[in-house]
Specification:
Elements lengths: L2 H21 L3 H12 L4 H8 L5 H41 L17 H16 L2 E2 L5 E3 H4 L18 E2 L5 E3 L4 H10 L4 E10 L11 E11 L4 H16 L5 E8 L2 E10 L15 E10 L1 H6 L8 E8 H9 L12 H4 L7
Parallel strand pairs: 1-5
Antiparallel strand pairs: 2-4, 3-4, 5-6, 6-10, 7-8, 8-9, 9-10
Helix pairs in contact: 1-2, 1-3, 1-4, 2-4, 5-10
The structure holds ligand 2U9.
Length: about 350
C-alpha cells in the first residue's frame, strides 16, 4: 500500500469508527463495531501490515499516524462501553424501581376463633358477676375426675367406652372440667365462686351435634344458704347477657352423680321466642346440666355439708356457639376451614 493511500485509509477508518461507535446502541453492537474496526480483517490492520515495507521517514510517519488512529479508536470504543454499561445499570434500576406513591397493600387482619369469642364472652359475663377463673390439667387422676365427684368405680362413665385413658395406670384425659373445681375446693375454704373453661375428652362418635374433643365452661358456687333459686337466677342472668333480655331459662329434673337434685338447663329459643321452630324444635335450646352440689362431694373436699350448700352447672361452649352464631353442624367449629372462619372477622 502506498503511503498516501494508507493515510487516506486511516482517515476513512477514523470517520467510519466515529459513525459505527456512535450508532452502537447495545454492548453486543459495540463488540461487532470493535471487530470491524480493529479486527484482523479491518482496513487499519492492512495499513499496519504495510508499514514495514516503507522506507525510513515514510515508515516512521505512517507508524505514528497508525498508532494515533488505533489509540483514538480504542479510546472511543472504551468511552462508548462505559456509557452503555451505565445505561444498562440505569435500565436495571428503572426496572427494579419501587413506586413509593402507590397505595400500600393492607395486611389482612386475622380473627378470633368463634369458640374463643364465645368462651371470652362467657368468662366476661361470669367474672362481672364476681366469679374467678380457674384452670387445671387436661390429664387427670381418677380421684379428681371421678371419685371425689361421687362417681363410684362401677359407674358407666368410668368405662373405656366413655373415657380415654392414657398409658399410665389411673390417669385419663379429663371427661369434664369438674376436676378443677375439686382441686379448687381442696385448696381453699368456702365461699367459692369459680368458673372453669377448658377442653374435655370423651370416647364418643363425632356427628353434627357431638365431638370427642370439645369445650366446657363449668360454674361452681359454694356458700352458706345457696339454693336452686340462686342456680336458676344465675343461669337466667347468663342467658340474658349472652342471648338477650327476652330469653328465659328453664331447669328440668335430671340425674348426675355429683349433684342432688340434678337438672337439665335450657334457654328459650331466641329465634321463635319459645314457640317452637326449625332451630329448636320445641321452643327450648338445651345448654347443659346443673344441680345442687352433692353433700358427698362437699365432704370429699373437707367442706362441712351441714353448713354449706352449693350449685354447679356445665355449659357446652360449642353448643352456645352454635346457638349464638346459627351454626348447624358442630364439626364446622373444629375443622379449621378458612371459608367458615373468615366469616368471624370483626365479630365480637
Ligand atoms: C363439682 C360439683 C358439681 C357440674 C355439672 C353438669 C351437670 C353437666 C354437661 C354440660 C354439657 C357436660 O359439656 S357437657 O356435655 N355438664 O351436665 N355439670 S352438673 O357439676 C359439678 C361440677 C363440679 C365439684
Amino acid at each position: 500500500m502506498d503511503p498516501n493511500e494508507a493515510a487516506r485509509t486511516l482517515e476513512q477508518e477514523l470517520e467510519r469508527g466515529r459513525e459505527l461507535i456512535g450508532a452502537a446502541r447495545t454492548l453486543e453492537a459495540l463488540d461487532e463495531a470493535k471487530i470491524a474496526l480493529l479486527g484482523r480483517k479491518a482496513p487499519i490492520s492492512a495499513v499496519q501490515s504495510s508499514i514495514g515495507s516503507l522506507p525510513g521517514d515514510a515508515r516512521r510517519e505512517l507508524g505514528r499516524r497508525t498508532n494515533e488512529a488505533f489509540a483514538e479508536l480504542r479510546s472511543a470504543l472504551e468511552a462508548r462501553r462505559s456509557e452503555l454499561e451505565e445505561g444498562a445499570e440505569d435500565e436495571l434500576l428503572r426496572a427494579d424501581a419501587v413506586d413509593v406513591t402507590l397505595p400500600g397493600r393492607r395486611p389482612r387482619p386475622g380473627s378470633l376463633h368463634p369458640l374463643t369469642l364465645v368462651q371470652e364472652r362467657m368468662v366476661e359475663i361470669f367474672t362481672r358477676m364476681g366469679y374467678r377463673v380457674a384452670e387445671g390439667p387436661e390429664i387427670e387422676d381418677e380421684w379428681h375426675n371421678f371419685e371425689a365427684l361421687n362417681i363410684p368405680p362401677d359407674h358407666p362413665a368410668r368405662t373405656m367406652k366413655d373415657s380415654l385413658y392414657v398409658d399410665v395406670p389411673g390417669l385419663l384425659l379429663r371427661t369434664e372440667t369438674s376436676a378443677v373445681q375439686i382441686r379448687t375446693m381442696e385448696s381453699q375454704d368456702p365461699p367459692v365462686y369459680v368458673v372453669v373453661p377448658g377442653r374435655v375428652y370423651r370416647r364418643e362418635a363425632v356427628d353434627a351435634t357431638h365431638l370427642s374433643v370439645f369445650h366446657q365452661l363449668e360454674c361452681l358456687a359454694v356458700d352458706e344458704g345457696l339454693s336452686l333459686a340462686d342456680l336458676k337466677g344465675t343461669l337466667e342472668a347468663f342467658a340474658h347477657e349472652m342471648f338477650g333480655p327476652q330469653i328465659q331459662a328453664r331447669i328440668t329434673p335430671d340425674y348426675f352423680p355429683f349433684v342432688e337434685p340434678g337438672a337439665q338447663m335450657a334457654v328459650s329459643c331466641f329465634v321463635c321466642n319459645g314457640v317452637g321452630c326449625r332451630v329448636c324444635g320445641n321452643g327450648w335450646l338445651e345448654q347443659g346440666g346443673a344441680g345442687m352440689v352433692h353433700p358427698n362431694v362437699l365432704e370429699n373436699c373437707g367442706y362441712d355439708a351441714e353448713r354449706y350448700t352449693g350449685f354447679a352447672f356445665g355449659l357446652g361452649i360449642e353448643r352456645v356457639a352454635m346457638v349464638r352464631y346459627g351454626v348447624n353442624d358442630m364439626r364446622l367449629l373444629v375443622e379449621g376451614d378458612v371459608r367458615f372462619l373468615e366469616q368471624f372477622e370483626g365479630v365480637a
